[in-house]
Amino acid sequence: MAVDALDTRILRLLIEQPRTSVREYARQLGIARGTLQARLDRLERDGVITGTGPFLSPAALGHPVLAFVHVEVTQGHLDEVGDALAAVPEIVEAFSITGGGDLLTRVVARDAGHLEDVIQRLIQLPGVVRTRTEVALRERVPHRLLPLVEAVGRDAGTA
């Protein structure tokens, strides 16, 4: 899906001012509301915009510990283990990966003891062979997409 300069400007506004109305976005961009809405609909349909809503802080919800848990799975049981991981509320993301392990999970916990309890729960899942845990000490680059959006927009302008 090609993202052009106007799409880049729209995405920048969505990222920087997520609570602004479509009418205000259109005003700031100097385009018709219908044009903006058509662009937003296309960006959603094409999977560029995947959701809306608030970003929540696990730490503010009482879960300040962040760990990445690599999960090695018995061959042929990846789907079942993936489904079981979805039932663990402290797992906020899980990915199939290459390299060391089969799955990489992002786990939040109240404290070190709670993290151990979550890991023990994972180890007991049918199909899990072993886990390896890495605890995050400090976030160095927060989740962000604006630099990527801007790079894609620049590349679209030179193509």
Task: Describe the protein's architecture and organization.
This protein is of the alpha+beta class and 159 residues long. The two termini are 14 Å apart. Helix 1 packs antiparallel against helix 6 (146-158) and helix 2 (22-29) packs across helix 3 (33-45). Strand 2 and strand 3 (103-109) form a beta hairpin. 42% of the residues lie in helices and 19% in strands. The model has no long low-confidence stretch (mean pLDDT 94). Strands 2-3-1-4 form a four-stranded antiparallel sheet.
Please outline the helices and strands:
Layout: H1 5-16, H2 22-29, H3 33-45, E1 65-73, H4 78-85, E2 91-96, E3 103-109, H5 112-123, E4 128-135, H6 146-158
Antiparallel strand pairs: 1-3, 1-4, 2-3
Helix pairs in contact: 1-6, 2-3
